[in-house]
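Run log, item B.
One chain of 48 residues. Sequence copied directly from the ordering sheet:
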Amino acid sequence: MGTFFTGALLLILAAAALRVMIRNKKNGRAFSCGGDCSRCGGGCRIKV
């Protein structure tokens, strides 16, 4: 029973992380843009 709950928790956390990564990518706040900063437009810098 504990293995099930641990697996479900890990699955939920992975799905949440993926969702945040996709949302950031759509908003232009990705962690990398391919290394061509002249074409990036500054979206690959982490905005604080």
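Observations after the first pass:
- The first helix runs from residue 2 to 26.
- The mean pLDDT is 78.
Flagged for discussion on Thursday.
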